[in-house]
Amino acid sequence: MKIAIIGAGNLGMSIAKGMLNSDLKLDSLYLTKRTISDLTNCNFGTKVKITANNNKAIQNSEIIIVAVQPKQLKQVLSEIKCDLQSKHTIISVVTGRKIEEIESVLGKEIAIIRSMPNTAISVSESMTCLCANQKGEEKLTSATTIFNSLGTTLQIDEKLMQAATVICASGIAFWMRLIRATTQGAIQLGFDAKEAQELAMQTCLGASSLLVKSGNHPEQEIDKVTTPSGCTIEGLNEMEHQGLSSSLIKGLVTSFEKINQI
Ligand SMILES: NC(=O)C1=CN([C@@H]2O[C@H](COP(=O)(O)OP(=O)(O)OC[C@H]3O[C@@H](n4cnc5c(N)ncnc54)[C@H](O)[C@@H]3O)[C@@H](O)[C@H]2O)C=CC1
Ligand SMILES: O=C(O)[C@@H]1CCC=N1
Q1: Ligand 2 center to residue 262 CA distance, Å?
Q2: Ligand 1 atom index nearest CA of 172
Q3: In whole angstroms, what is the distance from residue 166 CA to residue 170 CA?
Q4: How far is the centre of ligand 2, averaged over its atoms, from the C-alpha of 169 (Å)?
Q5: What is its EC number (predicted)?
């Protein structure tokens, strides 16, 4: 595979790290950004080419992952348009930018996939949602194969992409805050900070794995933990009195309202 990541920033580098540690058969991986000095000292191996020259990266690649800020997208697309051929697939991971906006610059004859991974792609645990334009439909299988080697994928209708961004991409930050709060609680209850974080992380992973592996609904697993008159239901009810579920849902909806303004 000949891949280019245009915009090797936070998300672009997370994708690159995941790819380099995966089973993907990479022939080359071009990483571009405006200022490359902070990448040139890194030892990524001979398959990784670092350049500020997007055109060179496109000419030597087939799968082009565009990972720039939303406000930078149109300028980048205009810059690379002249190098695009039928062999190319554009995969945009840019927040809030619709396929029709990309087509308005590149036209409808280029395969365009819109995707939303999250930063857990760096450890091959991303939840990645995907959709495509008409030309990109035939490339969805190969794009899905790439992202499946970096986590889990779901093909969705484009109208759900903003919601997917909030749940899965912003979701990493939301879950981090829940893990941090659990850590703070564990410290208050007597654990040192390192142990507290380990307890919080592994319990979070355990809860998630229980649902993934059993296919159960969360309440089925909660019922197994909540001993009648026990400490779990007492704590759980207090959390709900304080608005745990409600504040989480309100936060998701607020995030969603914001994303529609980006
Ligand atoms: N799915 C997720 O979990 C996340 C998604 N995002 C989305 O990913 C996109 C990138 O976000 P970040 O990585 O946080 O941004 P960033 O600012 O860290 O990275 C963007 C990179 O693009 C480069 N760039 C800008 N103009 C360029 C050009 N003309 N040619 C080549 N490179 C250029 C910059 O030098 C920078 O390295 C955004 O659309 C953002 O909303 C961001 C963070 C998480
Ligand atoms: O916060 C943001 O706008 C981007 C989109 C999802 C994750 N980061």
Answers
A1: 10
A2: 3
A3: 5
A4: 6
A5: 1.5.1.2
pTM reported for the whole predicted model: 0.95
Instruction: Give which of 176, 163, 179, 172 is closest to 118, Cα–Cα.
Output: 172
Tell me if 91 CB under 6 Å of ligand 1: no
Please write the tens of the pLDDT for every residue from 165-199: 999 999 999 999 999 999 999 999 999 999 999 99
Which domains, and CATH codes, for the chain?
2-156 (3.40.50.720), 165-259 (1.10.3730.10)
Query: Which residue, judged by its Cα, is nearest atom 1 of ligand 2?
Result: 170
3-state secondary structure of 5: strand
Regarding the beta carbon of 165 and ligand 2, being less than 6 Å apart is answered: yes
pLDDT band at 42 (very low <50, low <70, confident <90, very high): confident
Query: What is the distance between the terminal CA atoms of the chain, rounded to a whole angstrom?
Result: 33
Q: How far is the CA of 206 from the centre of ligand 2 (A)?
A: 26
Q: Which residues contact 57 (CB under 8 A, 6 or more apart)?
A: 4, 6, 30, 31, 32, 49, 51, 64
